[in-house]
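Friendly challenge for the regulars: who can give me the structure tokens for this chain first? No prize, just bragging rights.
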Amino acid sequence: MDNLPPLREIVEKFDLRAKKSLGQNFLFDLNLTSRIARSAGDLSNHDVIEVGPGPGGLTRALLAEGAEKVIAIERDHRCIEALHEIQSHYPGKLEIIEGDALATDARTLTDRPVKIVANLPYNIATPLLTGWIEGELWPPFYSSLTLMFQKEVAERICAKPGDKHYGRLGILCGWRTTAQILFDVSREAFSPPPKVTSSIVHLEPRAEPLPCDYRQLEMVTRAAFGQRRKMLRSSLKSLGGEALLDKAGIEPTRRAEEIDIAGFVALANSL
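First reply, four minutes later:
Bragging rights claimed.
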């Protein structure tokens, strides 16, 4: 790809054994990381924010695929030296931020068009995603998200009404973005292999999502899916029960998994 050493050599050189406490699972297959980078679309006029680059397999792919600049946020100090080698190979194109992505305001990292592409650490993947989707300002600072999740989480992100995976996460993501699973990644592609299959999910912001306060939407979905087997007149009792449902035009005998995103937005707006 770029005449840099194979990733396994990098890992041995810097003694980068994956840490479970950091949710690390490294990808060594550069063909796979290139496929992930290409899934994000044209990178040539964008800065790319990457979370958890580790030894830099996806970082190298993003740069090789033409990213104007990659801003890599890495918490593990051991990986920084390995990333410096990539930085030297691509002068001026890789910015390394040593820190916690959950504590980093990604909106302040660049004033150029942004795509976020990452093999997210499993233990912070969902909080990062919801942080990027919630908020007062919309459209957001990025044009797309191309992210790796555990397959079960990916199915929840893309779930529709009636699906067993349908819940709060699918409603939040479906309300403000269009989301699709692009392909699965076998556990054998990682070192160490995780216990589950992973999936690449691509999300693009909706230009005009249905008007709604995300905090009210979060409140309604938390109550509804907290008792998902009960009728809504019971699960939403603390928020007004049948009076709230009547105001939103929803039958009180329906259950949470039967209500589409527009229905939940109506409930949120009726609070």
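The mean pLDDT is 94. The chain has eleven helices and nine strands. Your move, everyone else.
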